[in-house]
Design goal:
This protein is 44% helix and 23% strand. It is globular.
């Protein structure tokens, strides 16, 4: 992607965050930015609940196939080691690679997705969630994974903005 396109996408993201009125707005803004920077057929965000050893989806670009609801136990495989311990993005570029760590691989495949990029989001030394991009097999090249690093600060801001909006709605 070109530098002017990314600059515009960042400006659009900034404006969307500044004007966000509901907790989904920061995620929609982050998804729009991710589409320009990296690309995704399916975009989701998971939030970690460390005290209960669970995670839950807080946003989905396809709520029919991947609804925002409930939580699931944290997946402690080499996927967990990559994103939590090493604090690096996890990439699987084939459906076979996805199947090794995600039990819902058949749903993923049915959506035309065969590669995944899970980007860990950490604040104050704590991983608070992941930004998850899925696309066709072999989509997440080393160049696209490197480009995804541009989502790190916006992802932190999206998590913070969503929490801020939720907290303000709860006290209103």
């Amino acid at each position: 992607m070109t530098a002017p396109a990314i600059a515009k996408a960042l400006a659009d993201f900034d404006l969307a965050i500044a004007n966000a009125k509901d907790t989904e707005a920061p995620w929609r803004a982050l998804e729009a930015l991710a589409q320009v920077v990296v690309g995704a057929k399916l975009f989701t965000v998971m939030k970690v609940d460390w005290p209960n050893d669970r995670s839950g989806r807080v946003y989905s670009s396809d709520p029919a196939a991947y609804p925002v609801s409930g939580t699931k136990p944290i997946n402690r495989t080499y996927w967990f080691d990559t994103i939590h311990t090493q604090r690096r993005p996890f990439v699987a570029n084939t459906i076979a690679g996805i199947a090794e760590v995600f039990p819902d691989h058949e749903i993923i495949w049915s959506l035309g997705c065969g590669s995944v990029l899970n980007y860990p989001v950490s604040i104050a030394g704590e991983m608070i969630g992941t930004v998850n991009l899925l696309h066709e097999e072999h989509f997440y090249t080393p160049e696209r994974v490197a480009a995804a690093e541009q989502l790190s600060l916006p992802a932190k801001l999206a998590f913070t903005a969503a929490e801020f909006i939720a907290r303000n709605k709860a006290t209103a």
